[in-house]
Amino acid sequence: MIFTGPDETPLVLDLLPDWGARFGPAAAAALELEIGAGHGGFALAFARAFPERALVAIEQRRAFASALAEKAARRGHSNLLALQGDARKLAPRLFAAGSLAAIHVHFPDPWWKRRHVRRRLVDEGMSGLLLRLLRPGGLLDFRTDVEAYAIGAVARLEEVGFLNEAGPGAFCDAPPDELPSTREKRYLASGQRVWRLRLRRPA
């Protein structure tokens, strides 16, 4: 079940919804997706900074998704939709291939235990899905604080066909206009390393 709103009222969405009807044609033409919105720091900053663009934020934890939806509604961010659910299942039902301008994946759980490896977001299947959902030239904005996960992710993402803006196997610095997530703000304050990738679907 997908939930949105502070009262967790079920939201019924059609298969491959008409995002133009929801956000307007211009915003839907540059639709972006965040997977794992957490406390919503990035999503809310995005909605405020780019009112002409639209973002769908998927968060698996119901309490976090509900809190984000409540904040978005309270602040009047009509260009932000918060959904609760598993992005692996929801994303291919909500977005047509080649329809997203950007996908943001920030600090996914590395799932260290061997029995949990299958839960990692950047596996072969999900990496291929991310590539397919992006339009040609579309951006994958990936960030993590775990070096081993970052090294594995860049290898996997390049293997499925992503082009790395920084060069094969390389990580990049934060661009001047980067919007930090709630978690990333703590790392920036402490000086902890954040491993960033900016990858493109080939044009």
Characteristic terms for this protein:
8 helices, 203 residues, Rossmann fold, 9 strands, globular, alpha/beta, 36% helix
Topology:
Blueprint: E1 3-4, E2 9-10, H1 19-23, H2 25-29, E3 32-35, H3 41-49, E4 55-59, H4 62-74, E5 80-84, H5 87-94, E6 100-106, H6 124-133, E7 134-144, H7 147-160, E8 163-164, H8 182-190, E9 195-200
Parallel strand pairs: 3-4, 3-6, 4-5, 6-7
Antiparallel strand pairs: 1-2, 7-9, 8-9
Task: Please explain how this structure is put together.
The longest helix has 14 residues, at 147-160. The protein has a single domain (3-200), classed as 3-Layer(aba) Sandwich (Rossmann fold). The strands form two sheets. It has a seven-stranded mixed β-sheet, with helices on both faces. Strands 1-2 form a two-stranded antiparallel sheet. The mean pLDDT is 88. The chain is built from eight helices and nine strands. Helix 6 (124-133) links the parallel strand 6 (100-106) and strand 7 (134-144). The protein has helices at 19-23, 25-29, 41-49, 62-74, 87-94, 124-133, 147-160, 182-190, and strands at residues 3-4, 9-10, 32-35, 55-59, 80-84, 100-106, 134-144, 163-164, 195-200. The protein has 203 residues and is of the alpha/beta class. The chain starts with a strand and ends with a strand. The protein is globular.
